[in-house]
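User: My collaborator sent over this chain with a note saying "see what the structure looks like." That's all I know about it. Can you take a look?
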Amino acid sequence: MSVASWPPPRYSPPLSEDFPSDGDRILQLVDLCWTDDHGKKLVLDNWQRQLIRHVLEVYPEGHKRAGQLRYRECFVSVARQNGKSVIGSILAMYGLLRESGALVVGLASTADQANIVYKRVLEVIQKDPRLEKRFKKATMHRGIVGTNGSTYLTKASKSDAVQGLATSLGIIDELHITSPALWSDLLNGIAAKPRGLVFGITTAGDEDSELLIRLYKTAEDAPERFGYFIWEAPESHIPEDDEELGRFIKLASPSIAEGRREVENEIAEVRSQPETDAIHFKLNRFVASLNPYMRSDKWNAAARGEDYVWPEHGPLVYSIEQTTDDTYATISATRKTADGRLHTELAATFVNPNPELLLRACEILRENGAQMFAMDRLKLGPLANELKRRGYPVWFASGADIINASSLLFLKVMNGELEHSNDVLLNTQMARTVRKQKSGGDAYRIDKSASSIEIDAVMATAIGVYVAEQQQERPLGIL
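Assistant: Without extra context I'll predict from the sequence alone. Here is the result:
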């Protein structure tokens, strides 16, 4: 199962085997000054050193562009958790020190994300007196400015973020959610800079990743001044054989190929993930933005047997969901037992329910031991407010709760920590439910609008499982 970390499965080869590179100088600085997150001397992986040298390849002596960077635009695609921010911070430092008056711009989906690289650069400067002398300003809020007049800015990836900026080096994280216009604006910004570079680093995307799809297509044509370095599994599926899966993972994750991370742990994680997530984030392959939510084999295995007895003890949550057009509503019951397992079943379903009917149902359930009522505040706000006014314990489920509920229900089913009632309505809806990835991260949510049928029973179950997981057993009536 041995897989080399370098070269990646797809990459732009250098102009010659002994190519010159500005990477040699910045790597010397890294070896002298850089520390890791624990304050220890940073030891780069071989693939990281090779990547920096290749990205910063320069034309050799005798060439009409001698000393200039070979690449004007360059991107790296690699699986999650491979130290992308370290690469970005080293390149940012290179841009600051390379020439006087340079403007280095770091971009990501949010300013906080862009600041991850910025903070790494700042910490290196502040911890090393030799570097600190090279900067007249280096703070979190007032910016980084070199004694040579170079400046480092961070921005969120918005359409007008870099228009009109004469950029020397643009560094973009998360190319899969970056607009093509932003990349073009950065290219325009380096037009007057003979040594300018636009660099992006990312994981694979989906059918909506217009810029990244375009960059992958450009890589197929392999123009001389366009660099690409793509670590990916050879196919977009999860092999059943662990050894083959390990090989796939290593091809997408050079840090695992070099042994910095244990491949056995990654294999176990893949086996517990939604298949789409594993293909996307572990194998670094493009996926669809909408995918089936639940694995049918795991959901069927979580159905309780004929001799099952509903537990009498443990926090009891009733969760309510109503369809967008108010045609249907479902109340789900979820109980968490002392062993940490979750038990769920449909308590009631309604056709054309009115607020009074749902309120009366809640009154009955309260009389029968409900510890918490949970519902989406946007849809059932008036009902939730009325229950709250009466002193009932109510959980107002937010958008973030729905995201967390989506992943928690899946995880509980995958781990065999949930039992459901095998209700025909819930089974039918679960089989047709889809999930949508949230932009720029691992999170996803059940997507009501894209599912092919109404999924009020699924939503009520997910919310109930999430809220029940948060509950501690307590006497009825204590809020």
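A starting point for your reply to your collaborator: DSSP finds 17 helices and 18 strands in the chain.
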